[in-house]
Give the backbone structure.
Amino acid sequence: MKTHLKRIWHRLTADKRQFGLFCSLCFVALLLWARIIVIERPPKTAVAAPVAESVVEDAQLTSNTRVYVSLDTEVMRNPFVVHQSAFPMVGKVTNNMTVQSSDSGHDEYTHSLEGFELEAVMGEIAMINGRVCRIGDGLADASSHTPLTISSIGGRSVIISAGKNRYELTITP
């Protein structure tokens, strides 16, 4: 048997190409074996110790105390609003509308625009008076003859256009 193995070993090492192929096949076999044995871990099982009786008795003797939590009565839609009782406003509260008009004279839309409130801005979508609006959407206003449309949405503001006039509606704290 020893001579037989010697003869096979001489045949494998005599040709460099065959020996390289033999070494690479051995390497692949070792990798596959390591994957099966080392990486793929068999599941571990364990038996839990029985529960101590003193722990069960202590859990039954403790009294359940009630914790009262005060919640808001209505849901706030704007996550950017600052709570007034925690952080009171110091100074004058400003209106959330600025006029970017081409003519500085009489403006017929100011009264109708005071009813709009910008509640939230997320990307290209704005929520005005509880309604989801996008660029190009019209705002319902029966008192004006020129329709109010949203021309741009960005940051914390919305630009509303009515003819030549532009109005910026912003989120105010």
Remarks:
- Residues 2-39 form one domain.
- The first helix runs from residue 2 to 14.
